[in-house]
Amino acid sequence: MSIDLHSQYDKIYRYCYIRVRNREKAEDITQETFLRFLEKPQYHNQNKDLQYLYTIAKNLCIDEYRRKNTEELPEELPDSSCNEEIILESVALSTALEKLSAEDREIILLRYVNEEPVGVISRLYNISRFALNRRIRKILEFLRNEFEREDF
Amino acid sequence: MNKKSKKTLKNAFNIPEPKRKDEFLNSLPAKQKKSFSFNIPLYVSTAVTAVLIIGIWGGIKNLPHFDQPSNIDTPTYSGTTSLSEHTESTTVQTTAVTSTVKNTTETSAVPTLTTKTTKTSGAGTVRTETTTPQTSTGTETFPPKTTVTTTKKESNNITHKPTTEIHTTEITSEPETESPETTIKTSTASHTVTETIVRTTVRTTTKTTTPSRTKTTTTTTITTTTTTSATETVTETTTTTAESEVNFVTTTTFIDNVGIPGNIGSGSSQTTIGATMDSPPVPVTTTTPAPPTGGSPIRDFTVVPAVRYYPEGEIYFIDSESNDSMPPTTAPDDTGIFRQMTADSDLIAIVEVDEIIYTGLDGVPYTQENVTVKDVIYGDMQTDSRISVYCMGGYIPAEEYFLNVYEENVTVLDYAGNRKFSEVGDMYMCFLQKKDGIYYLTGLNDISKFECQEDYFVNFHNNQHLTLQDIQNFINNS
Fold it and tell me: What's the ipTM?
């Protein structure tokens, strides 16, 4: 049980962070998301819990963005336990990710880091599953082209 | 995605670890923590399913089996013929009439399919020709055929059957009339007959105009039967069809009997040989499916996919069916989704799966189902045609799905929101869109598929019910 809660927390936190780009704010929003979710029994639908969590988090991020329209650099470097190859790849990939739109970055994070189902993501962004798959495909092609362009 | 790639991608986002996570989670009451326990049964069931599927796959090397309701094997449906009632107008062109000639002979009461020819003199002969268009139940079609029978003389020389048109013609020719072609004798022994020449042209022309959404079909069948010798009957049948894109065609057929020696009748007038007509010809109306073009009963519109995948190696499940499932309901559709689906569809049909092919388009897995059309509810398609239906989801090699970030020998099974996949032999009703010559499920997944029950259809995805009348209303209102 606790593993699931930890996993969900990490996923929502990552999602909030790439939106607000501030750890403190991201954690505040993440906790607020869970509190709001737990307060409302009508959200507790077995098939739509993920959907509700992300929707609540998204709305809170939007509110936060409107309050404070600033972006901050990340506070920490990548995990120092990574070997050199991973670090270099991460830097290259990070550069490529920065060239994506904010929404595309979110989609990639949700799909491959948070490993959320396509259905959840498509409803979150109000696009069809087919359109989402095509969009992911294009994003990955772009990242691969950008990644290969780096001299590694 | 393998662990290395995940880690690379995660690091690329440069997301710092949260600092207050444990503090927050520990502060939650135990009761609230339990609200997240829903995931465990879901993951356990998914894992168990995956183990079972992999075990079955490894044991018998078969495709995964998806549970099917028992009634899908024996679907029944009704009301298909009622669509013919929606034909706004029907125009039938007839080109021939029968001619009957009085005679005093009797014919055999036993219908036969053979004719005998002898040179006789005396009373007239009775010869009956039948043209038998078949009435379809909606599942089979047969081209019209002509048979020659002898029947008992009727008072009006015409015998009717629900699906067979029989016109009995009696001809009395001049005694000793002889032609190089035809002599027909009845099979009774109580009288003698004169030899006569009979050349009968059967011409059936049908034309049906249907509601504005379907095309007009004109079918012309010309059958010429010529008896050339005492023991041989030559029958020539020429069938031409201008269009045949309508399910049901109402026909009115007359038989043109042109029994004039040496003459080829125009088919549009009555011709007799020195006799009078006993009674005017009576039209017989039958309902028959439009015969296919080219003389072949099956039209194959299936496509060959550019690539074909086979499940092998480790199976990686994505979007298992429960993620996108709507709660089952037996209530009628009140969301408008099927109304919209009807408006977006080019073809609504009942099909039977003949073959399943796993393929992909731009890295998105699709399942191509080659199906036989069993009945058409809406759209330009003939029954017994074969088409390819594309449904989103299916098996695809991981390297095709995720651009080389997966390990080798891994196959992805993407449910793409489907609750279940079809199997060979399944029969279902579906809404289809046509793009570039290929039919896709209108909703891309099994939201567009329905099990066929006796009086209604049940949606694969959400168990909602639709009746044929519902669909007809959607069509009429769209």
Answer: 0.77
